[in-house]
Each structure stands twice: as structure tokens, then as C-alpha cells.
Give the backbone structure.
Amino acid sequence: MKPSRFTEEQIIGILREQEAGAKTADVCRKHGISGATFYKWKARYGGLDVSDARRLKALEDENAKLKKLLAEAMLDNAMLKDINKKNGDARREARSCRSSQGGVRGERTAGVLCAGRRPNLGSLPEHQT
């Protein structure tokens, strides 16, 4: 976004000129702004003092920082949930593997590994010659 040529104090001064009785067209011509810009400023800064405008600017900056922090926290939270889900899936797979192997360590069936990494050699048909 292009920065304004005018500060908040200058904008409020321009609006005060018009409120003091000068014609809007004359004020716009004097300061080199369009009528649309003048009315946009009036909608935003109308009725504000310089101190109010400074406070408004400070609050807008703080709001932008807080929005950025919230977005980053939400991304971190989503990443942690994704990691936790993947770890949970791995734990469930390990539990199901243990239960299919008798549930007690050391009672593994010969040649059986979980998750299809190696076929169960005990279930293959025997080759007869």
C-alpha cells in the first residue's frame, strides 16, 4: 500500500479548514487532493482530534501485530495436531502389531513383522517336491 503524503495531523487540519467554512473544492485544490480523498478522510478522521488520531494509529498497529501472532499460533497449533495425529497412527499400528503377535514380548511368530514389511512365512503353503 502506498504511504500517504499527509500525516494524520495534516489531514485533520485540512478537515478543520473545511469545517471552518471554506468550500470543499477550494480546500481540495489548495492541498492538491481529490474530492473523493477528502470525503474518505472525512469518513475516517471526521470529529477526531490529533491525539485521537495518534491513538487510532497506535491501536491499528497493535491490532495488526496481534493478528499476525494469532495467525502464527494457529499455524503452530495445526502443525502440532498433524504431528500428533501421525504419532498416534504409528502408536496404534504398533499396538495392533503387538496384539497380533500374542501381546507379550518374546512370543513373536518366526519371520513375522508388522505393517506388511515382510510376509508371514508360516502362512505360505509348503512346497512339495
